[in-house]
Amino acid sequence: TNVANHKAGKPLLGCKREPNCFDLVLNQRTEILRVLCSSGSAEPVEHVTDILLSQGELTWEDYQSIHVLPEEQPAGFSFPDHWWDPEVREECQNTFCQTLLTQRPSLVSTLQHCVDGALEALLTSAHFTSADCEGIRLPLRTPSQQARCLLDHVRAKGEAAAKFLLEYIQQGEESGSILNKKTQTVSREFLKFQKKLRSSLSAQSCFLSTYGGTSHMSLDDIYTDGQLELAEACPDVHGPIGLKDITGEVGMINEEADTVLVSGEAGSGKSTLLQRLHLLWAREAALLEYLLLFPFSCRRLNTELSELSFKELLFQHCCWPDRDQDEIFDFIQDHPHLILFTFDGLDELKQSFSDEHRLCCPTQRAPVHVLLFNLIQGSLLKGVRKVVTSRPSAVTPVLKKNLCKEVLLKGFSPSGIDCFVRKHHSDPTVAAKVLQSLHTNTTLLGLCHSPVLCWIVSCCHKELLGCGEGSPQTITDVYLTIVEHFFQHHSPLRSTGKISWHREYLDPVLRLGQLAFKGIVSTCYIFSDKDLDPCAITKEDLSLGFLIQSKDLSVFRSKCYEFLHVTMQCFFAAVYVVVSKDLDRSTIPKLFELKNLKETSLRTACFSACLLYQQVDECSLDKDATAVETPNLQMTATFASGLLSQRHRSLWLHCCPATAIDRKTRQVSKCLSKGMQKHFKSIPQPVAGEKKSMHAMPGFVWLIKCIYEMQECSIAKDAMSKLEVDHLKLTYCNIGPVECTALAFVLQHLNNPVGLQLDNNTVGDVGVEQLLPCMHICHSLYLRNNNITDEGIHKLIAKSIQCDNFHKIALFNNRLTDACTQDFSLLLKTKQDFISLRLGNNNITAEGAKQLAEGLRVNKSLKFLGLWGNSIGDAGAEALASALEGNTTLVWLSLVGNGIGSAGACALSKVVKNNVSLEELWLTENCITRMGVECLIEALQHNANVKSIWLRNNDLCLEEVEEMAQRESRLLF
């Protein structure tokens, strides 16, 4: 009716040729109003205007002048088949914007089910900005209204955007939408709840919720992928995996389990990764196989005092349905495979994971941790996919047996650091300068592999970079800088120059430190207003930005606060330990021995007053720190070590007597020395005939990092003087570039050379560079599966050539190519005492083999050469054979899985015939035929020193294998 009034004579629905249509509309005004508005929704009116616009009965200006109230009304799914006809597409190639008008009704019907997915695609393709997307997603708009607004925005962007959108819709129509197929069978109230849940998750996830909380950083603008790898080797997966693989079937090790664990160290990006998954689901851009996604924060679950049923847990902590709660809950129970739960920070729960208390009834009330543990192990709501994040130190064998797979999050790759810095700095010139400075300061570059530290360095680039010898070296240095950065920007005097925050802001620092310390020792990371009072936290303290308001999907929660990041809480707790006069002398020993700190005396307030929940289990006060408390206590101790170093001693002398600082420093040194001795005493005596080796116990790397934070060579010398082993194993110890820096600082003080085994870590090229200072004390280095490239090898070999003790290296399962073989050739030519070179499972081809051959011709010491799992082929085998024919030292050669055929085998037969030292030759999984084996058999007749040639899985039939095995017993098939 508004249309008729506005157009003054133009009839409805394409009837303009009938002279009495306008009069008919006026005469039937009341009835038309009743028909259009009887549903209580504006959707019929908007649908009519869509039709009028598409048929040319309304101009664009007419359409925009008509006001329609935004109300909700579901719409069906339809799309005209003729649009996908190739002839029609050809006619419309240059009129995509016009097509958005002529096909508007059907486009609205289609898009209203996938607005978020379309927006994500438009954002990724740079047709839309984040502001465009947020404008369309306004909560007051229904899905159909959002679809109309989306079409309007696309038209305004021009032909390229219109074409992209139409192609996106076509692809969705051709592939079919899993979500749409499934939602056709659910109720209207379910769809409304789903929409409410998506809206809540979208609102909670659109801004970075962790360390970027004070700067309101858009997740779309800043999110950078971390390195994701499967914890268990999967034959179908080589290298990193993507976000979509977390909940997918890739890497499944236990088909009976439903829980996926994402493990990573503090600051590696676990919470942000989950936040990204939440946002993608909310926008229908990923995880479409799940109709509902329920996110939980374990640190928030810590605050739940009362016992809950599973239903109450689900709706109270996430999103409560407006109606038909029982119906929706019944659907969840009946269709668990369509539901996804995420639990962030399992390591932050007060209770360690246990399977002792079994619970199967979803309506039975129980403590929250019991509900969570039963969900994870599948006793409760079997079939629901769960994604749980945790630090590795809290992952127990009991938890592992309930996992369908474990994914490792290893922070940023070098390219990830580059991407994050460029996203953080909108000015490309600034970003380029920051990256240039980072690459000249490898210590800071190593720190940046942790996303939280990369953020700090990006925020404080002016303070951290370009300082020359005064550049920060430790994590403590970096956190001192970020604290100074915050105070500098908060101070009204910041324009007058650098402030002495440890003087001017000592009181708020101590208040925040007291809150942080109490939270750390009680496994408390969220604080209410009442929790702030015992520590006298003021509004001014909150305005500093270290404490931010905690986000919560639940509408029943009062305002709560948390530190920017758990590492920031640990830092402030450490400051409190160092400066406070209210802690007794046993605090530091307890902190480093990880004993219970809950009874630590405080002069200003009773310790338990800060506990978020008041009912403290009395028996727990008698126990040592649990597994879930240990990581943050260790981190706090690490910061305390750094803060008490000689280089930072002057910071605290104005507020703490020198005698007290010296006493605490001596306490830390003593604790570190005792801790290292405890590890050394645990080393078993070697088996007869073997050399003494030590496999690092949990906590060894942490002690090494504490020693490094203190930057005291005397402590490192004292610790290493008591370590007498030939081999030090640090496999699967989460060794990254930061840990490599600390290891090099400490291990360089060893009295005797050691073999350093760092297999299955995240050393990378930057970590390799950090290890160089201790290479002179390494007689062998094992770096299997560490994501190392040719760049890292170039620096490693340049240093190794200068090290007299260095004799062995193993680098299989990395990312090496032919570009590094020239470096290894130089190593072989230069070091005539080098014994073992193992480069299996890399990307070396015939060209690389030819480079290695040049070094092998000259070398007179190599005994073991491993090149399995590369691609050297016949040409590479021939080059190696030519270089090794007259060799007198090589004992073992592996060329398994290299695509070698009979030509290569015939060339290698000359080595078998003439090499007087060779004992084993591995040629398994190649392409060798009978002709090549005949050459090897003939060669063996001339050499009795060769003990075995392995030939399994080559191009031989069963009869040939049996015949040749009988002719020559040294051929192993």
TrEMBL record:
Claim: Membrane is one of the keywords in the record: yes
UniProt entry keywords in alphabetical sequence: ATP-binding, Cell membrane, Cytoplasm, Immunity, Innate immunity, Leucine-rich repeat, Lipoprotein, Membrane, Nucleotide-binding, Palmitate, Repeat, Ubl conjugation
Presence of the UniProt keyword Hydrolase in the record: no
GO annotation, biological process: innate immune response; regulation of apoptotic process
NACHT domain boundaries: 258-394
Cellular location(s): Basolateral cell membrane; Cell membrane; Cytoplasm
Ranges for domain CARD: 98-171
InterPro entries linked to this entry: CARD (IPR001315), DEATH-like_dom_sf (IPR011029), Leu-rich_rpt (IPR001611), LRR_dom_sf (IPR032675), NACHT_NTPase (IPR007111), NLR (IPR051261), NLRP_HD2 (IPR041267), NOD1/2_WH (IPR041075)
GO cellular component, one term: cytoplasm
GO molecular function per UniProt: ATP binding
Protein topology in the membrane: Lipid-anchor
Primary location class: membrane
Family: Belongs to the NOD1-NOD2 family.
Name this polypeptide is given: Nucleotide-binding oligomerization domain containing 2
High-level lineage: Eukaryota, Metazoa, Chordata, Craniata, Vertebrata
The encoding gene: nod2
